[in-house]
Design goal:
Shape: globular
Distance between the termini: 38 Å
CATH topology of the largest domain: Sec63 N-terminal domain-like fold
Helix content: 40-55%
CATH architecture of the largest domain: Orthogonal Bundle
Number of strands: 7
Strand order of the largest sheet: 5-6-4-7
CATH class of the largest domain: Mainly Alpha
Number of helices: 7
Order of helices and strands: HEHHEEHEHEEHEH
Largest sheet: 4 strands, antiparallel
Radius of gyration: 18 Å
Length: 194
């Protein structure tokens, strides 16, 4: 069973149903290429929306995504696919949703995963996009170009680095010790080290 947890109290936090539906649709389109309304409504994540909101949220999300030219309807108007403009948003939605779906390990393996990058100024928009992706994945910003997480790095991050052309400017490290990591431990709700 999939689980999304932006807040502990509710599966979708305080996001509105159409926003959640938009993210789900973009995520599914990124994964499978094209999808029908019926397939969207049968997906386990959509079923987490309150029953009275499911159909209306999906309809509103499809309308918004079409209006913003992120998806297009095929001939039968019941099958949708991404546009070029929607592809980047779909990648971001998929990365963030993949992180929300994952189950956190029961115990921490005492290894920090650190992503550092030095992306040239001419690729500023790619650099900002990478920061947004890292935020969406739940990384902690140690410095502007240094991000940390205690959890295994999802495979999709490698896809993002390749897709936006910054792989050669990025390094991923697995670190056993960071001096004075109490701020990191507090952020990820781990016991502080004395």
């Amino acid at each position: 069973m999939y689980r999304i947890y932006p807040k502990r109290s509710e599966p979708f936090g305080n996001f509105t149903a159409p926003i959640v539906a938009s993210v789900l649709i973009l995520h599914l389109l990124f994964k499978v290429g094209e999808i029908t309304i019926k397939a969207i409504l049968q997906h386990p994540l959509v079923k987490q929306l309150k029953a009275r909101h499911q159909s209306a949220a999906i309809a509103r999300a499809i309308w918004e995504l079409k209006r913003k030219r992120m998806i297009i309807a095929k001939k039968n108007a019941k099958t949708f696919q991404l546009t070029k403009k929607g592809s980047r948003k779909a990648l971001f939605a998929s990365v963030c949703l993949s992180q929300r779906i994952k189950i956190k390990p029961a115990s921490w393996d005492q290894t920090w995963r650190v992503v550092i990058f030095d992306i040239p100024e001419k690729q500023r928009s790619d650099r900002n996009y990478l920061r947004d992706v890292l935020k969406g994945l739940g990384f902690f910003k140690l410095q502007k170009s240094t991000w940390v997480t205690p959890y295994p790095i999802p495979d999709v991050l490698q896809d993002v680095l390749i897709e936006i052309g910054v792989l050669e400017h990025t390094r991923i490290m697995h670190v056993d010790e960071i001096d004075d990591d109490n701020d990191l431990r507090a952020h990820f709700e781990f016991p502080k080290f004395a």
